[in-house]
Fold each of these.
Amino acid sequence: MEIKINEDNHNPLLNRRKIDFTTTFDGATPSRNEIKNKLAAMMDISSELIVVQDIDNQYGKKEARGYAKIYDDANTLKSVECDYIIERNKPPEETESEA
């Protein structure tokens, strides 16, 4: 999976950056968590400060467009974002296998 950043805007009032990106991939469309981890590695920040707002798959292509918000701190993220968006962006919990 490769991510190309199309636009990077800083919003000083909300202490965040808005990233418009295009991702190319093989196989299934990447999950929010995979995109968050890749953006965190590219930007050298914690993935906990990233909220992937939207991913739009391009029909017939191995390409998706989307946008993410990168907050300066966790307190601002919690005070600005809606609860359902925060819940949607939580990493998947590891399921315990029963023997």
Amino acid sequence: MAMRIKKEDNVKVISGKDKGKVGKVLKVIPREGKVIVQGVNFTKRHQRPTNQYREGGIVERESPIYASKVMLVCPNCDKPTRVEHRVLENGEKVRVCKKCGEIIDKV
């Protein structure tokens, strides 16, 4: 599945319990069409004490959400926008903001 969102992008949640929150994409899971966003969709997990986690207990962590529930925040106009893929004259593929028309980055 083609993903229009990449790791380190700033995104805004457009539906669900965390609607309106903005965060950075920590991980992209293209096979499932999901992303993990910093500070969004926390779930609680019971953690047993191990060498890695000295203290057990209930741990809160971010869970994946569907990529269709988030929109990329354009770094140029600071608004949530759809993403367009364009090929430049020199053969370079880039992502383009649909609102302001500015180039976001290379693909």
Amino acid sequence: MQIVHASTVRHPSTNPSWCARIFDAKAARSGGIVRRAVKDVDREIGRVAFINEVSRRGYHLIECGGQFIVICNAGKMIVHT
């Protein structure tokens, strides 16, 4: 587990375009998948803000292996194991 120090975390208002750039990617606009390292999300806007933004858009978010995987589609999700 990586420790993120408060001094390295940016407040969302200091980097408002970071999240917008993610969801403006071609994959996101076409209903595909985007992924970002959890440590980058924590540093750039914070986990709570990111989760809230994904939820606001109606997308699905998975965390696995230090990555956030965003399914940019509001359709029903079924996980097959």
